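Researcher: Here's my situation. A collaborator sent me these components and asked whether they could plausibly form a single complex. I don't have experimental data yet, so a predicted model of the whole assembly would be a useful starting point for our discussion.
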Amino acid sequence: MNGLLFQLPKTVTKSNLKQAMQQAIEIEIATIPVYLYTYYSIIRVPDQSGIEAQILTDMKATQKGKKNKKTDAQLQEAATQLALDIMVFANKAGALIMSVAVEEMLHMSLSSNIKNALKPPYGGIPELVGKTPKVWPAYLPGHIPGFPINRGKLNKEQLHAFLLIESPLPFTGGEEKGNAIEYTTIGQYYDMIIKCVSDDLKDSDFDGDAPQLVPGKGYYAQNNIDTVYYDKDHKAQFPNDEHSGGLIHVKGKKSAIHAMHEIIEQGEGASFEISIDGKKDKIVGDHLTPTGEVVCPLFPLGSGMTNPLDYDDHGAEHELSHFDKFLEVYCTIERKNHELNTFLNTKNFDFTKYFVRDLPTNPSTSNYPKAIQDVSNLTNAIYTYIFVMAEACYKTAGHKQYEIFMFGIHKSMIWLLDNLCGTMAKLSYTDSHGEKQAVAATLEDYDFAPSSSPKSQIIDLAGIAMASSSIVSQGLLDRIKDLPDVPLEAYLVENNKGIL
Amino acid sequence: MKDFKYSALNSCGANSCSKSSTNGPNNCGSSGSSGSNGCGSSGSSSSGSNGCGSSGSSGSNGCGSSGGSSNGCGGSSTPSKQKDIAVPLELHACMGLNACKGHDRFGTNDCAGSGYCATQVHSCHTLNNCRGQGGCGLYGDTEEQCRPGANDCAWQGSCGTPIPAERFITQGENKGRSVWQLARKLFEDRMDKSRRTVQDAPFKYGPPIKWLRANGRGESCGSSGDKYCSFGLNNPEKSANEFCLESSKEIDNTLGNCGCDDDKKKKKTSKKKASKK
């Protein structure tokens, strides 16, 4: 001891590898509610004629009293164009954020695969339940510097936090939080694990037969209709690319390292090497200052005019990194607002109000009125049950795992949770001061009681929600009843007992 | 069924179900004996609505707030005057995928492949109750999306039914191509193996969204909005026509990407091996 009460680990070694893998899983989990919350703030398909009329009214209001005000014809043309731009951008912003959220779930699975494949004392069953941040703003476990992450609506501040999460570059500022293994970027964190696995482990330290979420079973698809958007000619665009990778069956060092490289490349981007004066160096973008401020590139990303310092310039078909996807949304907002304010001679015209719901920041179920609490509890229970089922997939393989994943997790994610989150984002209530307040799914971990199965508790919650609100339909309840019955403790999943 | 013409522009166009192209009525029996699933003839519908995730962020699944009259989406079409059959004789995923006479939604079609619309409706991935009911496209992995209307088991279907002509595959080498045309091709192959005559579908490229809407069947699904839509720049009917024609030209390649060619090659290889023995 050198006078410190304790010292934070600075690197990953064989002795803390198990902790490091669990921390990696929790880093991935921490991003999921944040990205989903922002996603549900976006109205992906606004009413084009409705917003055009509103934009025109608002633009006309900005011109009152101005000397060189725009003509009505100029304003009409600008309103029409902006409404069209919003139709494309709102859908695209939603698709890009969802395409990242999908890959965060993949990354959680890849890290869990590695942890479960690692034999004791280096690995074990991944712990997924109850790992959603409980205090908001949240902080990425171990990230130096710490920076606050909120569940908030789409805006530049929220996207700035997303960019810091996915940053390929270290930055300064912020504050230190947490008691985990320290790192400056998520990529650097995985690099530490890769070095440990590469240098210190043997293939025999892995058990490839341990249950994992593996390719070839239909568990993962890079794209779905929620990651798709349309260009201005209404041609479908697909943000994720099959070649960026999917699930990997971890059997030894090589596949474990492959999985971690996939996480890094999808998140931060495939920073590639160049040779300058015979010295190899990594190309990294210039879009974050050393203190973490965003610098928008001169040209739009993802088009033929990609910035030469982008992180993903490996060809037109290559998928943008999470960082670059968020940068594209951030910089589009910045550029478009700058363009509009220049045109209107205003300072604060913000076009995002036409397609972003004014959701609260970091809401809590307990702050909602009773009827909304009931729906929120049901939503959070289903959200938490997804992690219960995911954890169970690492206890059991074969048909039972397939049933849990396909009929439990898929159904919960793309049907039940999407339905409830989407519906909640349209609700509002009047508070005690007579003011209208927006509502959103809080995406908090629900605290299941140990006395009965989570599924039976979800059915009870659905009954309560149905009694207090018309939001929850009989059809939704029927689908909840279809879910597999997975116990709270993954070790209770027995291979010889039916769950459906 | 000439009433169901899509539009003057339509080339996802209506076939007139010409009697000359058939061998007359098929007689499959009346208990769904030729059906592709083992669900029997009741309990087909799992959900009243057909909007997979449509209550998500987009609110509605249309372009605009109420059918999109302002932007060219969701214009009306001629609804059928026929009533749904009380008890479907076969549960299948869409127009043109029925195995026998009288097996369509209205119970009045002449022959295999000529039926109007699905006899069962469900709205999303994993919500199908039976074999052969997966609508495909939109959700699911590459392999699942290669098997529209051909899933093996309940809940294994990818996405909802019916399958609009405009629905596209979202995964794999075939992404952006027609789901219905692939489903139809797989259906024709299945019928061919059973030595069955198949008649043209009422619409050559599947039921257009406009027709489905006019006949009380919304389309699936997801939050990205309606494929049949306009932002004011494009003509949705022209766009839909181009999509149908392009998918039609690529159908052999689509099948090849799904490994259907591989399956045939494997069979040929195994036959050769067998003959050597």
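Model: Some features of this prediction you could bring to your collaborator: Chain B touches chain A through 55 residues (CB under 8 Å). The first helix of chain B runs from residue 142 to 145.
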